[in-house]
Amino acid sequence: MGPLKIALLQIAPCGTLQENLEKGLQYCRRAGALGADIALFPEMWSNGYAIYDRPVEEWTAEAIRADCDLVDAFAQLARELGMAIGLTLLEQHEDGPRDSFLLFDRHGERRSVYAKVHTCDFDVERHLTPGDDFYVTTLDTAHGEVEVGAMICFDREFPESARILMLKGAELILVPNACPMEINRLSQLRARAYENMLAIATCNYPDTVPDCNGGSSVFDGVAYLPDVEGSRDTCILQAGGHEGIYIAELDLEQLRRYRKSEVHGNAYRWPSKYALLLDTKIRDPFLRADRRG
């Protein structure tokens, strides 16, 4: 089995939904021509995460249904190219607009719908409806099946997000993003991959987009190899700031061998000692008074 090729579409949005559709289809075709098995968009591609410095009523009106023509076009293209597509959108939902991720397999079948759980409620994202769970799906690829989960941007900053996905069997986490990927956020991704023994692929907007700087990355989670002295760099791809398609080759067989023998992830956990994590009555000094949920 060859490596799983993940294409990070680090591309800038256009001014309209139709233009984003056309550009997204174009770049997916390019990724397919490069042999990608999975193509991943940055966060909220349908409107380019254009939710700042605008009236709330204006950008929330741009939410689209998860079964609209734009979404169907990417499902059809996934089937045509034989390539999985991780699409992102501002989703119209009965409970209010959501920051959502849809994963189509290479047959054009929708395998997962995930809404960002940790919305940035300290800012304009307080007007979004957060998701209520994390999901893992079995994704059929040309190189066999892989267990895939998703987080979106701020989800990355909570170790529970990746931990739950690991416990549900994830081997690969796809992370659409829309913020500066500086050393501390990159360190979070590195840590999530290391401590859970899984791969994390993050796609950000390029540096031509306000408050973004590219830096899309893939960490394969394999810190040690029998024939390598000491630890190795788990970063197998680190993009610069420019717009483009960045492809990482993930060695799933290596990751699976590593997970069978190493000590991280679920190997030596003590869940019975973590009861405090589930105590909703605790009010520590860092909980904000205006926090919902």
Plain-language structure description:
23% of the residues lie in helices and 23% in strands. It is built from six helices and twelve strands. The protein has a six-stranded mixed beta sheet with strand order 5-4-3-2-1-12. It has a six-stranded mixed beta sheet with strand order 6-7-8-9-10-11, with helices on one face. It is globular and about 50 Å long. The termini are far apart.
- Cα-based radius of gyration, to the nearest Å: 19 Å
Provide the structure class.
alpha/beta
Strand content: 15-25%
Q: Based on CA inertia axes, which overall geometry fits? A: globular
Summarize the main sheet: 6 strands, mixed
The CATH topology assignment is Nitrilase/N-carbamoyl-D-aminoacid amidohydrolase
Number of structurally distinct domains: 1
| CATH architecture tag | 4-Layer Sandwich
The beta-strand count equals 12
Give unreliable regions as ranges.
none
The CATH class is identified as Alpha Beta
Question: How much helix is in the residues?
Answer: 10-25%
| Strand order in the sheet with the most strands | 5-4-3-2-1-12
Number of helices: 6
Distance between the termini: 44 Å
Short description:
With 293 residues, this protein is an alpha/beta fold. Helices cover 23% and strands 23% of the residues.
